[in-house]
Amino acid sequence: MSQPIVNVNEKTISHSEIHKNPRLERFLSFYKQLKKNKMAMVGGGIIIFYLLVAIFGKLVAPYDPLEIDLMNKLQPPSWEHWMGTDDKGRDVLSRIIYGSQLSLTVGVVSVAIGAFFGIILGLVSGYYGKMVDTVIMRFIDILLAFPGLLLALAIISALGPSLINVMIAVGIFSIPTFARIVRGSTLATKKLEYIDAIRALGAKDFKIIFVHILPNILSPIIVQGTLRLATAILTAAGLSFLGMGAQPPSPEWGAMLSSGRNFLWNAPHMATFPGIAIAIIVMGLNLFGDGLRDALDPRMKK
C-alpha cells in the first residue's frame, strides 16, 4: 500500500519522511498555522514583491533615477511617466524603485544592529542576574527614557546627517526592545530542568547561553525583528524627511517626500507615491509580523 503524502508548495513528502525529520515536521506545522491567517499571507506577498523590486530594480526601472530633464519637470502621471516627474524632471517611478533598495537596506541593517547588541545584553542580563542584570537594565532604562525618534535625532546630530548614521541611530534605539524581550525569555528558559541537567554535566556558561538557551527563544526574536523592521523603515524615512538622513539626489523615500512637500498644490504626485510606497511596506511587515506571532505562539495552536 502506498504511503499517505503531504503536498507543500507542489512538493510531495511522505508522512514517514516527515516523522523522521522533526525540523521538517515543525516547519510544516508552522506553515500550516501561518497559512490559516490570510492577512499574514497578504503581508508576506507584499514583502516578497518589495524584495523582488529591490533586487531587480535596475532591470525594471524605466529611467535613470538621477537623470535630470528640466524640459519635463513636474509632469503629471502619464503613459510615458506612470507616476509623473519631479521638480528636476526625474521619473518618480524609477526613483521609487531604486529607493526600495535603500529603504529596505536601512531597515534590515538597523534592525540587525539593534538585534545583535540587544540579544547579547538580554542573554547576559537574564542568565547571570543580580548585579549584572541591574547594571544592564539601568542602561536599557536610560535608552528607553528618550523617545525613539528624539534619540535617533540626537545621535545623528552628533555623527552628522547620512544614511549610514541613520542605520546606526535607528539600530541603537532598537536595542532596548530586543534586550527586554530576550531577558524575559532567558529568565523563563534558564529555570527549566534541561538547563539544570546540562549545567550539572559541566557545560560552560557560553555553551548554555548560545547553544541551548538562544535557539529556544528565537520565536519572539523573529517576530519582534519583523515588526521592528517596519518601525525602522518608517523612522529612517522620517529622519530623511527632516533632512537628517539620505541627502539629495538620493532616491530615498523619505527624502522624496521632503522634496515633494513644496509642490503639494501643483504636483501632488511627487509626495503621494513615495508616501504610498512607505505605507504599503509598513502595512505588509506589520501584517506578516502579526501572523508570525500567532503561528509561533503555542497557545494559538489547536
Short recap of the structure:
With 302 residues, this protein is mainly α. The chain has 13 helices and two strands. It has helices at residues 15-20, 22-36, 38-55, 57-60, 92-128, 130-144, 148-159, 163-189, 193-200, 205-213, 218-241, 253-260, 269-296; strands at residues 5-8, 11-14.
Note down, in words, how this protein is organized.
The protein is 70% helix and 3% strand. It has a domain at 102-300: MetI-like (MetI-like fold, Orthogonal Bundle), CATH 1.10.3720. It has a two-stranded antiparallel sheet. α2 crosses α13 (269-296), α3 crosses α5 (92-128) and α5 (92-128) packs antiparallel against α6 (130-144). It is mainly alpha-helical and 302 residues long. A hairpin with a 2-residue loop joins β1 (5-8) and β2 (11-14). It is elongated, with a radius of gyration of 23 Å. Mean pLDDT is 85; it is low at 1-11.
Give the SSE map.
Layout: E1 5-8, E2 11-14, H1 15-20, H2 22-36, H3 38-55, H4 57-60, H5 92-128, H6 130-144, H7 148-159, H8 163-189, H9 193-200, H10 205-213, H11 218-241, H12 253-260, H13 269-296
Antiparallel strand pairs: 1-2
Helix pairs in contact: 2-13, 3-5, 3-13, 5-6, 5-8, 5-11, 5-13, 6-8, 7-8, 8-11, 11-12, 11-13, 12-13
List keywords for this structure.
3% strand, 302 residues, elongated, mainly alpha
How many DSSP H or I helices? 13
Mind telling me the C-alpha Rg?
23 Å
How would you write the strand order of the largest sheet? 1-2
Distance between the first and last residues' Cα: 31 Å
Secondary-structure-based class equals: mainly alpha
> Sheet bearing the most strands, described?
2 strands, antiparallel
Residue share in helices? 55-70%
Average pLDDT over all residues: 85
**Percentage of β-strand residues:** under 5%
The H-and-E topology, N to C, reads as EEHHHHHHHHHHHHH
> Which geometry do the CA atoms define?
elongated
Quantity of strands, as a count: 2
- CATH homologous superfamily label of the domain at 102-300: MetI-like
| CATH fold category name of the domain at 102-300 | MetI-like fold
Assign the CATH class of the domain at 102-300. Answer: Mainly Alpha
**Unreliable parts:** 1-11
